[in-house]
């Protein structure tokens, strides 16, 4: 809210007399008026000063954590994947840690699956308990702009884990007191090895895409974020997943929405849903969690 203050300074009214051409000798000339000691009232700033410390409003938060800050979160997820007329449900827990170091940010995350066996028709799919390990490093290259690298290992304990690497550039723009957007672009590759009766098959998927996050503050301590991601992928090599995920080239779509509430200056609660589409597969991911943050 902008505060407008109209300040009217009323000058001292000084009477000016006109002396006679030759004043009587017994009348001394009038003394000069004393200087005014009126001090103008300062005009307050139109925009209130931001709160000290890390902003509690989602739209006001910086793109990267400040130096010396620590953020730890844990989220529970329920993933529902539709393969034609069949559906598979996965339940997971994901701890995550982020640290601000100088003008950079380091992030580690891991995904643990609770139910490791799913059935699609006559096919039984076994998922590793440790489904994903994630690491990222980002550095600020301009105000609210970062350049980073993200590395993901899928099924780290499996005989043939999958590896994904991405380079990501991101920027956050604060549009107004109650809104902000984050834009990012990425390029990378995913390398996967499948084991079949006739031997191993390796595929490489090139990925190129971008993401938009739109944030709005719907209450002083509650923010909402909508997300849309579109990525081109090109998978080379024979893949056992082609009948499920479709052709080796196409567009992957990813949409999501979440709410973030600041319970305390150092504690957030969040929840949301994501919709993913690759080929003939539709995936819905429901997430709820809490995040603790310590800022020096």
Molecular structure report:
This protein is mainly beta and about 300 residues long. The protein contains 1 helix and 14 strands, in the order βββββββββββαβββ. The chain has a 12-stranded antiparallel β-barrel with strand order 1-2-3-6-7-8-9-10-11-12-13-14. A two-stranded antiparallel sheet has the order 4-5. Mean pLDDT is about 80; it is low at about 1-25 and about 45-50.
Give a quick set of tags describing it:
single chain; 296 residues; mainly beta; twelve-stranded antiparallel beta barrel; two-stranded antiparallel ribbon; 61% strand; elongated; disordered N terminus
| Order of adjacent strands in the largest pleated sheet | 1-2-3-6-7-8-9-10-11-12-13-14
Give the biggest beta sheet: 12 strands, antiparallel, barrel
Q: What is the SS-derived class?
A: mainly beta
Number of DSSP helical runs = 1
Mean pLDDT value: 82
Beginning-to-end CA distance, first to last residue: 29 Å
Say how many strands there are. Answer: 14
**Morphology call:** elongated
Low-confidence stretches: 1-23, 43-50
Succession of helices and strands:
EEEEEEEEEEEHEEE
- Report the helical percentage: under 10%
Based on CA atoms alone, the radius of gyration comes out at 31 Å
Percent range for β-strand residues: over 45%
Condensed summary:
This protein is mainly β. It has one helix and 14 strands; from the N terminus they run βββββββββββαβββ. 1% of the residues lie in helices and 61% in strands.
């Amino acid at each position: 809210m902008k505060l407008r203050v109209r300040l009217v300074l009323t000058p001292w009214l000084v009477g000016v007399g006109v002396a006679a051409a030759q004043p009587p000798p017994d009348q001394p000339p009038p003394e000069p008026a004393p200087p005014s000691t009126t001090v103008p009232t300062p005009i307050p700033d139109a925009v209130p000063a931001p709160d000290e410390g890390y902003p509690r409003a989602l739209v006001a938060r910086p793109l990267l954590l400040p130096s010396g800050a620590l953020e730890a979160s844990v989220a529970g997820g329920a993933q529902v994947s539709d393969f034609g007329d069949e559906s598979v449900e996965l339940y997971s827990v994901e701890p995550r840690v982020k640290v601000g170091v100088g003008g950079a940010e380091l992030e580690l995350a891991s995904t643990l699956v609770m139910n490791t066996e799913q059935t699609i028709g006559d096919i039984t799919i076994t998922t590793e308990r440790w489904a994903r390990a994630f690491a990222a490093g980002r550095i600020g290259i301009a105000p609210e702009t970062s350049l980073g690298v993200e590395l993901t290992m899928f099924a780290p304990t499996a005989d043939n884990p999958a590896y994904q690497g991405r380079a990501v550039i991101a920027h956050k723009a604060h549009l107004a007191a109650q809104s902000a957007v984050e834009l990012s672009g990425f390029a990378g590759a995913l390398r996967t090895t499948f084991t079949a009766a006739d031997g191993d098959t390796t595929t490489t998927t090139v990925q190129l895409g971008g993401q938009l996050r739109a944030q709005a503050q719907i209450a002083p301590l509650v923010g909402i974020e909508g997300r849309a991601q579109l990525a081109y992928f090109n998978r080379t090599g024979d893949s056992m997943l082609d009948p499920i995920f479709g052709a080796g080239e196409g567009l992957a779509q990813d949409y999501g929405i979440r709410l973030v509430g600041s319970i305390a200056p150092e504690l957030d609660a969040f929840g949301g849903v994501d919709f993913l589409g690759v080929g003939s597969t539709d995936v819905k991911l429901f997430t709820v969690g809490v995040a603790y943050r310590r800022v020096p």
